[in-house]
Each structure stands twice: as C-alpha cells, then as structure tokens.
Specification:
Blueprint: E1 3-6, E2 16-22, E3 32-39, H1 43-64, E4 68-76, H2 79-94, H3 98-101
Length: about 120
Amino acid sequence: MATAGAFPGAAPEADMEAKELENEEGTSAAEFALGVTLTLDSRKDLLPEFRLMKDAIIDWESKRGDSGVLIVMNVVAATDIHEIFDDLLAKVYAQASSFGESAPDAHPAGDTSGSGRE
C-alpha cells in the first residue's frame, strides 16, 4: 500500500497539491514517486498552477535524484483546459528543461493512457 506525505517543497495552495508516495506500485522500497493533482476551474488558473506544479517537481527531483522514479499527474478540469495543459506540458518537455530531462518515459501530449484525466 502506498503512503503519502506532503512534499516539503509543495506549495500550500489548494488548487495544486504535490505528495510524495513511497512504495507506489511499480517502485521498489528505495524508490519514490510524486503525485501531483491540479484542480483548474478556469483557463486563467492554468499558468500559475502549472508553474507551481513545475517548481514542486523540480524541487522533488533535486531532493530525490535517481531514487525519484515516477511522477503521477492528475488534472481535474474541463476538456478544453486539458488540451491547453497537454500543449504546455509538451512544450516544456520538448525544450529539454530540467523538468523534461527528469521524465524520459513521460507520455507525449495526446497520449492520455495513465494520465489521470477526469
């Protein structure tokens, strides 16, 4: 069973939540996963919340290094916001920022298998 704890670098805002998951399915006892949930009520919320999410992921990756092996993202939003989010995530990944470099097996935009879409 996975255990979750608030990641110290996670922002306290209610719309973006980042929690570290230990012993998540697909990880060993020495590996860690990060669960990130974004709840977006409107398009204007997307960029600020995306930045908070990105910062939390970068902070977590710098803390865990190679033992951080899995990032699970859940985005709760209308379909049109999901499309914008996918495009934004693809651009960040394509720019090979530290965010993209830490996730070589990430699903490209448009691949929603396991994306946690609601």
